[in-house]
Amino acid sequence: MNGSEGSVRDVLAANLKRVRTRKGLSLSELSRRSGIGKATLSQLESGTGNPTIETVFSLARELDVPISDLVDHRPAAGLTVVRAAEVEVLAGEGVDLRHLRRIESGDSVIEVYDQQVRAGCTQDSLGHAGTEHTVVQSGRLGVTVNGRQVELGPGDYVGFDAGSPHSYTALDGTVHSVLLLHYRAEQKPHLNDPGFGSKGAHRSV
Questions:
Q1: Which of 27, 65, 88, 187 could lock onto 69 through a cystine, CB 3.0 to 4.6 A?
Q2: Taking the complete model, does pTM exceed 0.85, yes or no?
Q3: What DSSP string describes the chain?
């Protein structure tokens, strides 16, 4: 998202409060479910917090929404160009993500990310909704899903149920890749909610 649309902090602040309220959850209850401190959640909703990949994925998992419900604007119609230099990085322990686009088609949602796994680092995930697809552009990427390990090089692809515990490891320098997260109606029951995608319940990270 570019500067004119607001920072990741500002977008997350507005979306988090809206989604939490729509779900009928208090800050205390969301804190209990997610394991994220109430003070931290309050800071995130006020736009003063420092969101990380781990925090955003945890919130999306507990709120049962696509990640882009929390971190994205709805793109304008027509030609859409996203400049890498204008997209804020959402950083994790080992990965930097840039959310490029949310695509809605029928009862499916697809999120498109530029993903970089930092040299010598590993990014672990306990799992989240959707199906995960990664195409390596450069570098050597180690992927572990439910204990099964594979190694990918440039041009290689991996796909798996994102609900399974998984991790990415940069095996030889920084790894550049494209990450797609695909949510189907049967995976995300709320996609059938009449409020999904409406102006009053806008999301689109």
A1: 65
A2: no
A3: --GGG--HHHHHHHHHHHHHHHTT--HHHHHHHH---HHHHHHHHHT-S---HHHHHHHHHHHTS-THHHH-PPPPSS-----GGGSPPEE-SSEEEEEEEEEEETTEEEEEEEEEEPTT-EEEE---SSEEEEEEEES-EEEEETTEEEEE-TT-EEEEETTS-EEEEESSS-EEEEEEEEE-TTT-GGGGSTTTTSGGG----
